[in-house]
Amino acid sequence: MLSLAGVEPDKLAIAFTVTLVAGHDLEWALANGISNPLLIDETASAIVGFGINDTILMTGLMSSSVYEFYIVGMTSAFQIDLSFIMAGFAYTTLEYMQDTMATTNVQYFMITLEDGYDMNTMKATIQAAYPEADVTTSEDVIAMSEQIMDMIFAVLMAIGSISLLVGGLMITNTTMMSVLERTREIGIVKSIGGKRTHVLTIFITEAVMIAMIGGIVGCILSIAAVTGLTGIVYGMYGFPLAYSLEPWIFMAGLGMAGGIGAIAGAFPSWRAASVKPVEALRYQ
């Protein structure tokens, strides 16, 4: 999914703070008789597979009309990273957009302030002059993005906490069952000179190993899920999901899994180490 904007040919750099990196700009296209020029940014070009001198057909989300554009140049990526919801940005002339859509409407204005001007003062001035206008500053956009990310993080933390709690209880239950089934073995170990620390170490190690195996399987499944979901979304909508598979994430996950295993197996292991050899040997 591309975000298409119509802009005055000489105002592109000011409005979107992008630069031409290859090909020609919109002013050149108009001067050479190209009525439907399009500039596509590097991100979009790499994802959708269209480049300079290609013809691309586009349609709107709310309209079945098809629009034809001729790509004359490539720009740098837009500074606001929206790669998790769209493939990138493309630009054409405002006049062509209005002619194609049979309208003289302008959906929004982008204002770039020079040094020395206060953003909030300018916002208040515009709102006073045009009360019906919705004025949004870059600070508002950043605050909104942070709020959305905080909400997503809180939901993920809640889901993760529940998963860790369930996993810890399962490890505790598994270790406890192992202690009950091997009570006689514990008695034999202690009767031949085994210490409490030896028994404690055996069961805690087992609990940690179970947790680590679960952590490794979880990492493999998460990689498969993320790459698979990205492929599905790209195939259906034409844009990928943004993700990063950093090594430290998996190291931290495995470390957390080991820690949860040690904590969850602590009580059953302590009970195993506290069993008296005589009683353990009589246990069937």
Give an account of the 3D structure:
The chain has 284 residues and is an alpha/beta fold. The chain has two domains: 2-100, no CATH class; 139-282, no CATH class. 57% of the residues lie in helices and 13% in strands. The chain is built from eleven helices and six strands. The chain has helices at 12-16, 26-31, 42-48, 94-100, 119-129, 138-181, 183-191, 196-237, 247-264, 266-273, 277-282; strands at residues 2-7, 20-23, 37-41, 55-59, 66-75, 88-93. Strands 1, 2, 3, 4, 5 and 6 form a six-stranded mixed β-sheet that branches. A hairpin with a 6-residue loop joins strand 4 and strand 5 (66-75). The longest helix is centred in the middle third of the chain and has 44 residues, at 138-181.
Provide the domain count. 2
Q: Major sheet, described briefly? A: 6 strands, mixed
Q: What would the average pLDDT be, to the nearest integer?
A: 81
* Assembly type: single chain
Features:
2 domains, 11 helices, alpha/beta, six-stranded mixed β-sheet, 57% helix
Short note summarizing the structure:
The protein is of the alpha/beta class. It has two domains: 2-100, no CATH class; 139-282, no CATH class.
Write the layout of secondary structure elements.
Elements: E1 2-7, H1 12-16, E2 20-23, H2 26-31, E3 37-41, H3 42-48, E4 55-59, E5 66-75, E6 88-93, H4 94-100, H5 119-129, H6 138-181, H7 183-191, H8 196-237, H9 247-264, H10 266-273, H11 277-282
Parallel strand pairs: 1-6, 3-5
Antiparallel strand pairs: 2-5, 3-6, 4-5
Helix pairs in contact: 6-8, 6-9, 6-10, 8-9, 8-10
